[in-house]
Each structure stands twice: as C-alpha cells, then as structure tokens.
# Entry
Amino acid sequence: MSSGARNGVATPERRARGAARPTKVWAGRLSARTSEQLERYTSSLAVDRRLGADDVAGSRAHARMLRSIGVLTAAQHRAIDAGLRAIAAELSSGVFTVSPGDEDIHTAVERRLFELAGPVAGMLHTGRSRNDQVATDLRMWARRACTDLLVALAGLQEALMTRAGEHRTDPMPGYTHLQRAQVVSLGHHLLAYVEMFGRDGLRLGAARLACDELPLGSGALAGSTLPLDRERVAHELGFGRIAANSMDAVADRDFAVELTAACALTMVHCSRLGEELVLWSSAEFGFASLPDSLATGSSLMPQKKNADVAELARGRSGRVIGDVVALLSVLKGLPLTYNRDLQEDKEPLFDAVDTTAATMRMLTEVMSAVRFDVAAMRRAAADPALQATDIAEYLVANGVPFREAHTIVGAVVARTLAEGRTLADLSVEEWRAASDRFGPGVVRLFDPDAALRRRDVPGGPGPRSVTRQLARARTIVARTRRAAAGG
# Structure
C-alpha cells in the first residue's frame, strides 16, 4: 500500500522517450535505492494477492470511465483493456507471476500492464491513488465475502433446522449452570442455534451494506481536478453509492471492522455449539456420537474417539475475536487520512472470513451426520427433580404464592435427597403432608412427554410450540438465502 498520493502517470517526456514504468511508482522525489530489508518488511504481497481479480476489475472500470471523459483515446483504452484482460486470465489460471520488486498486488498488476501494453499503461493511474484503489479492491472483496458467508450460514441453519424437525418431541434435560434444570426437547434446543445464527445473518447483511460504497475517485485524500464520473464507475462495479467525503473514503475501514465483528460473534455461536457437541459426545453425557469419518483418535489410547472438529470450532473462535481486536487497534490512533498502518487491515479480515466460513461448513457436515442417542436423553429427562418447578407451579395454580411454593418444594427435594429417594417416589399422602394444597394429580407430573406438553406456550419447548418455531426457522433460512442472493 502507499503512503500519500501515488500518481503513477508517466510524464510527457518519459512517454516521448517510450520509457518503461519506474521501478517504484512512488519514486518521484527519491533517488536512493530502497534497502532489501525495507522492501521485505513493507511488502504485503503475500497477504493481498487475493485481491488481484478485484484490482483488475476496478482498473477496467476506471479505464472505461477515463475513456468516457476523454482522458484516454479509443486506441489507448483498447491497449490498456487488452492488457488488463490478459492479466485477469493469468490470475484466473494461476500463471500470474510476481516480481521481487512488487510491493503489493496493485503494483504487481501495474508492472505487468506496462510489460503487456507499454508506456500507455502509465495513463491508467490518472485520477486515482493507490489509497482509493486499495480501499475499492478491499470493499469489493469484502462484499463478496459477505455473500459467501451468508451461503455457508444458510447451510448450517438448514442442517440444524432439519435435525430439529427430526427430534421435535424427543425430551432431554435443559441445563442452567451445567446442571439439569427442566425438560426441553432436542428440537427446541437445536432451534435455539437457528435463532442465534439468524441474528448473525442480519449482521452479515448489514456488513455487506457497509461495504457497498465506492471510494474510487477520492484520490489520495482530496479527489481530482479531472471531471471523473464516479457514479458510472460505481454502477459498473455494482456499488450502491459513492463515498460522500474523499478523506473519509480512503481512511475508512469501519466496513472491515463490521464484517470481522460479525464473523467473531458467529464464531462465538459456533463455539457454543461445538462445546455442546463435545459435552454430549462424552461418556458422562452420552447424548451424541460422531461418525468415525468426522472423529479422531488418540496416538496413545486405542479406545479414544474425540470430537476434535468441535473442539477446533471452539478454539478458533478466540482467533477471530483476536482479529477484531487487532483491526480496532490498528485504527484507534490514526489521524486522517491514509497511513501505512492500514496495510495491516487485510490479514485479520481475511483470517476472520476464512476461519468463519470453514468452521460453518465443517459444523454443517457434523450436524448433518451426528447421531443423537434419544434414549439416553429421555432417561436423563426422566429425572424427577426436573419437575420441581412444575410442582411449585402446581401449588401456584392451587392458590399458593410462588415464593411459598418454592420453599415447600425445596424442602421436599432436600428431604428426598437425604433419604436417597426421588420426588417420584413420594406418595400423595407424603405430598399432602408438605402442603394441604397438593392433590392426587401431583404424582402424574413426572412423565417427560407430559412435561413437554405442559409447555406449549409461545417460545416454549412443547410440541406445538416447536412446530411453530420450525416454521419460523424456515423463514429465517429463507431470509438468509435471500440476503446471500442480494435480496
């Protein structure tokens, strides 16, 4: 990336002599050769090479605009466009080569254009700086990355929704503080993640909207004296609007922060799902098992079968959270406008997008293949203690204030634990000894399926409620797919 304006247009004298592009596009006032160590330290080519196709697309649109306002002749435009199309083909086929002197992908493309088109290549940089050029390329890449992430997210949502539909009425314990709490259904539990990832879809859609602004034409910081047609370039490149302030346009990386932050929260949700899979596949829970093709073993212990992919989803969330911190730290002290610090924007952004997309696709495969042991879940859900709140609410329905009911049932729980019994072991007479508001119906509260049916309230885990939530989940998945398609 550049520091300051980089007007790479060849001077009339150089064009007259047919001179090639200078070694450095910014070498106008500098006479000494840059040190090799400086070149290695400042190069970003290893990171930003993936922006090559966007750089060429932006340059082709810029060249067409320069032709439309009379800066380029028809012949000059044809030569430049032919060179750019050839570079695009080289990038696409993987044969594009970089030179040791190339600082970044943008200078590599420019150097190659000089080789293919000759001195006329120097006309392409008219009216732009590498500052607005880089910002444009990065926005184009980020906008496309949002789409790819939304596609991956929709796949994960759909996998969760499908499995939830299969287990709409299968009871399992719900947990608070990792302690058994109340009966829910496996379907209800999985649909909670559809809701989480649904919010991630909204954030990714908002991040894509933040990317949808064209900086090109802002120059280094103060635009150009030429009558650049920025609206035309924006339309050609599919941007919804042009940047309103040239200084903000080249300094702004909020869109990258928004996208990275959306990835971080998505990864937090992936991490929580990964943690559940790790727990559920342990012998202590025994609620789930991965197929051998998605599990790993131990190099020492032959009996081991590990949910490593779920652990890595959990672990890699920390890296993406770190990417947000890294990007914010780059931006926090920068004066307007461009500073070379902004070269450091790409690595955290690229890492966040790559990691999040790969994790969502991996979890989609896992969720599609994981086997749930519904019998083990049902046995755990049959723990009578899970109905303690239902028993308290039974008293409430019979006129007992909840806090009093809570105390009564808590005392019964403590007594049965001390006696080595369960709540289901108590007779009606023993319940009535605790409170005269208990009737014969109290002993029928311990069936987990009945417990689910009692919770057919909006948002609850009852079968009819989960059916409504499945319909909502289909709406969420459709919304994410529409967002991915640009709708």
